[in-house]
Amino acid sequence: MNNKAKTIISLLVLLLIVGGGYYLYRSFFGGMYEPVDINDTSEVQIEIPSGSSLGKVASILYDNNLIKNGTFFKSRVQKLGKETEIKTGEFTLSRSMSADEIIGVITSEKSEDVVETTKLVIPEGFERKLIAERIEEKGLGSKEAFLNATASAADYVAEFPWLQKLNEGESLEGYLFPATYDIPAGATEVDITKQMLKAFQDRMGEYLDREDFNGLSFTQMITLASIIEREIKVDDERPLAASVFYNRIAQGMRLQSCATVQFILGERKAKLTNEETQIDSPYNTYINEGLPPAPIASPGMKSIEAAINPAQTDYLFFVLTGDDGSHTFTSTYEDHLKAKENMK
Description:
Pfam families: YceG. GO terms for molecular function: lytic endotransglycosylase activity. This protein is mainly α. The chain folds into three domains: 43-107, Endolytic murein transglycosylase (Dna Ligase, domain 1), CATH 3.30.1490.480; 117-208, no CATH class; 218-341, no CATH class. The protein has helices spanning 3-29, 54-63, 70-79, 99-106, 128-137, 143-149, 189-204, 218-231, 238-250, 258-265, 301-308, 333-340, and strands at residues 44-48, 89-93, 117-121, 180-184, 317-320, 327-330. A hairpin with a 6-residue loop joins strand 5 (317-320) and strand 6 (327-330). Helix 2 packs across helix 3 (70-79), helix 5 packs across helix 6 (143-149) and helix 8 (218-231) packs across helix 11 (301-308). 28% of the residues are buried.
């Protein structure tokens, strides 16, 4: 083979290498911007919080399987000069969208998918009054308007038929589910109420169709759960506390829950006076047998599950004895008095 032929072959090999390399480069690196799944058009809701960095945005998209690689996505945004144009709020995307299409949505001024929201955190055990105060503190409405919006469960029966289970004239105390909510801009107190009722409905699921809970009605079960929520801090103790209350009900003993008296007072006191435990009210479980007429706060699912599935014990008493909020449970009054010596 002469030198000319060798040169031609060398050039052809070089072209193949360069061309193949370029093809591989385009296939790999270019593929990083292609849709994760071109056939998956199902909607994926994401939220970009205020103050999110480009890296945070890339992580949110990657965690939701909307992009193939966070580093390449950030590089693409920077190359397009869009780094400072990313909006905050909620977006509707899909895995059939390319990186460029996603960038277009989250940087578009006219995007209808962007919804400004405010986070509202409602802890377990909050009364309706405290929820109303929290709403007003967050600038989402007025305390008075929210209390009015939640004063009658009957106002929401058409949308939430299970509310027919509640007693006539009952408020929504106990049914405003404690959770973290994203409240859209412009939402009214009624809108917020419906969002909380929807959360309760979603969490309760098939329990909404059940009529009997260990001899209690649906509303009585939620009432018991609300007392457990207010009395107990340690999750493992919730079923034990439930057993105490069920045992007391079965024996005709008064529940003697401080939380019910605090509900009457409208304040949470470390210790009640003897006079306060004698307040004339159907909610006072120191002077009335059985459960109060309605819930005293919004219970979380752990307290609701405890009310539905109490532990099987012969306990009749419990007293706060641990620095961590734990209690000592006893079956006799004599043992209860001994436990009270370590009362916190």
